[in-house]
Design a protein that fits this description.
CATH class: Alpha Beta
Radius of gyration: 17 Å
Strand order of the largest sheet: 2-1-3-6-11-7
Order of helices and strands: EEEEEEHHHEHEEEEE
CATH superfamily: paralog of FGE (formylglycine-generating enzyme)
CATH architecture: Alpha-Beta Complex
Mean pLDDT: 77
Helix content: 10-25%
Number of helices: 4
Oligomer: single chain
Distance between the termini: 53 Å
Length: about 230
């Protein structure tokens, strides 16, 4: 199968086979391979949303996402991490947690430092070898926008010791899984974010590395790379 050229990346879903290094058409349903040896991306259309700015909860900013982008349907799993990084995923921190409870090919990659997440997307871009495509971590604004958070949302973060395989819970309105926990995910600004509430400042703060740090990828056309803008309200 020949590779898809950048201008053809217009489908609602795009799938990249990590083992074959090629794009393929999406199926009618996700299989185990789409959580391990394939990377599934969902197109998110540009738009605007409002968010509160803790600790000043009375100030609401209008955030504009200026261009469409693709984001991982699932967080990066341990097998995907190993295929791209060409090294075994290791749990170096959080020694009090039983390894068997969190180890598995379709389980989210945990215990990942920010620099390792950046290295992953850089190596993924090399694997795809499309100069007009750019893989990166999603910005904080892209993540929140894709998560479909509204000002009235009050999602809760799971407190699971036995981390489940990705995609076990229902997806959100954008078809994305596991946006509401239990793993905190890295954003491009070196912030960690998770689904226990857009108004919780601890969820979108620059923090130290955590045992439950994971990430998902973001894909844009290089020519369309324009950062989100935020305009503070009264």
């Amino acid at each position: 199968m020949s590779k898809v050229t950048p201008h053809e990346l217009k489908a609602p879903y795009e799938i990249f086979d990590l083992s074959k290094c090629e794009w393929e058409s999406p199926p009618t349903d996700w299989s185990e391979k789409h959580k391990t040896s394939k990377l599934v991306l969902r197109r998110i259309e540009k738009g605007t949303f409002e968010r509160r700015n803790p600790p000043q909860e009375n100030i609401i900013s209008q955030v504009t996402i200026p261009g469409d982008f693709y984001i991982g349907v699932f967080p990066v799993t341990q097998e995907q991490y190993e295929q791209v990084m060409l090294e075994q995923w290791q749990r170096d921190r959080g020694a009090t947690v039983d390894r068997s409870a969190i180890k598995g090919p379709a389980k989210p990659t945990l215990n990942v430092k920010y620099d390792n997440a950046i290295q992953f997307v850089e190596k993924l871009s090399q694997k795809v070898a499309e100069p007009n495509l750019s893989f990166n971590l999603p910005t904080e604004a892209q993540w929140i926008y894709a998560a479909c958070w509204l000002e009235t949302d009050t999602p809760t973060l799971g407190n699971r010791v036995n981390v489940a395989d990705v995609g076990c819970d229902d997806p959100n309105a954008n078809g994305l899984y596991d946006m509401h926990g239990p793993v905190r995910e890295w954003c491009l600004e070196k912030k960690q974010i998770c689904g226990n509430g857009i108004n919780n400042p601890s969820c979108t703060a620059t923090c130290a590395d955590s045992y439950y740090d994971g990430f998902r990828v973001c894909l844009t056309l290089t020519a369309q790379q324009t950062p989100p803008t935020e305009e503070a309200g009264e």
